[in-house]
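Example record

One chain of 145 residues, shown exactly as stored in the release files.
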Amino acid sequence: MAEPLRFRDDAAASDPAVTVDAFVEQTNALAVRIEPGDDARKLLPFLDRLRLVEVNFPAFGDGRGYSAARILRETGYTGELRAVGDVLVDQLAYLKRCGFDAFDPDQPLDAGDVETALGRFPEVYQPTTDGRPPIWNIRHGKSHG
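Predicted structure tokens for this chain:
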């Protein structure tokens, strides 16, 4: 298996990810895997313990993982947030805007395509977790979301 594509400076988390329900019941787990339908809010009391959250995208059209990422980032999670599964290059910019900083797709991604996808839209319209101000704030002289 190839190394995940990461946008972090720290060492990659290699802890085995357990299910959300198993994580909540354990005291020594450091990594969790969120499946579609899991409630990311169950993890909120444990954010300081988590090193890695994998969010599974079993099908590219299932967007529930975007919501899980936003919930975790907006409530203070700073660890690695990795999108896994059917992750397509066209989704990377949007996933990154929601807080994902690592990607482990089922199919390898071309490095040039990744660079193009992430640089395609220098301005953004929605406020999200990556810190870039939305264009409407810039137009009105505000530098933050």
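Notes: The chain has one domain: 5-139.
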